[in-house]
């Protein structure tokens, strides 16, 4: 099992384009166009897996990301968030992992705040976990993606070993839902802290969409 208290011991044959990063938007000029991320075929979740540090669910569905078609392949969660945006670390970060036909990876990260409303789909995931349900669950989450995404696009890496680079990131700060304190608390209680440390930016360009 991955040990987040011993990150310095993770296999580290990587370069200078690592994730997550500390994002400061105040010095960035917003790109004039909209962030191109649209769910085409609704995202459906299937098998739920407890990998010791997070819940992972296999996914199906497709999205168009900057003019290219990607398959949605899985979703998992980190708490607290891995990315930091303008000094804010969010209580939870959702990673929607996508891959295209030539194997390129694109992770859409939804930065989730705590609010009054509990999210019914995240609750379903919790309830299935509690009940030990691992077979196909057919939960549709296409509406987790905001209609008009706001955030950052940059090139980084996987945040767990093998920490592979060349991963495209869309860090989205305006998801249209929150989790309530009970849901965030449940995740933290079951999985502890599962976020990777901030990595050096090394002069990388960040594109800001708002
Ligand atoms: Zn992740």
Largest sheet features? 9 strands, mixed
Q: Please compute the radius of gyration using only Cα atoms.
A: 16 Å
CATH architecture: Roll
Structural class: mainly beta
Any idea of the CATH class? Alpha Beta
Distance between the termini: 38 Å
Number of β-strand runs: 12
* Number of H/I helices: 2
Q: pLDDT average, as an integer?
A: 94
Provide the domain count.
1
- What fraction of the residues are assigned to beta strands by DSSP? 35-45%
Describe the model.
With about 210 residues, this protein is mostly beta strands. The chain has two helices and twelve strands. The chain has a nine-stranded mixed β-sheet. β5 and β6 form a beta hairpin. The site of zinc ion has 4 residues, from β4.
Summarize this structure as a short list of keywords or feature phrases.
single chain; 210 residues; Carbonic Anhydrase II; 2 helices; 12 strands; 11% helix; 37% strand; binds zinc ion
Concise account of the structure shown:
By secondary structure, the chain is mainly β. It is 11% helix and 37% strand.
């Amino acid at each position: 099992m991955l040990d987040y208290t011993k990150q310095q011991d993770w296999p580290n044959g990587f370069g200078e384009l690592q994730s997550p990063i500390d994002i400061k938007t105040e010095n960035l000029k917003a790109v004039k166009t909209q962030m191109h991320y649209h769910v085409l075929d609704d995202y459906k979740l299937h098998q739920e897996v407890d990998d010791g540090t997070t819940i992972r669910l296999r996914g199906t569905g497709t999205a168009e990301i900057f003019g290219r078609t990607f398959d949605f392949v899985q979703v998992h969660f980190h708490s607290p968030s891995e990315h930091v945006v303008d000094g804010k670390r969010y209580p939870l970060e959702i990673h929607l992992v996508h891959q295209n036909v030539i194997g390129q990876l694109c992770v859409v990260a939804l930065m989730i705040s705590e609010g009054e409303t509990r999210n019914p789909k995240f609750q379903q995931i919790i309830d299935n976990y509690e009940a030990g349900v691992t077979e196909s669950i057919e939960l549709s989450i296409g509406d987790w993606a905001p209609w008009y995404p706001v955030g950052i696009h940059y090139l980084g890496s996987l945040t767990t070993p093998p920490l592979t680079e060349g991963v495209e990131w869309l860090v989205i700060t305006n998801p249209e839902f929150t989790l309530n304190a009970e849901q965030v608390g449940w995740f933290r209680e079951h999985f502890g802290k599962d976020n990777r440390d901030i990595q050096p930016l090394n002069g990388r360009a960040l594109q800001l969409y708002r």
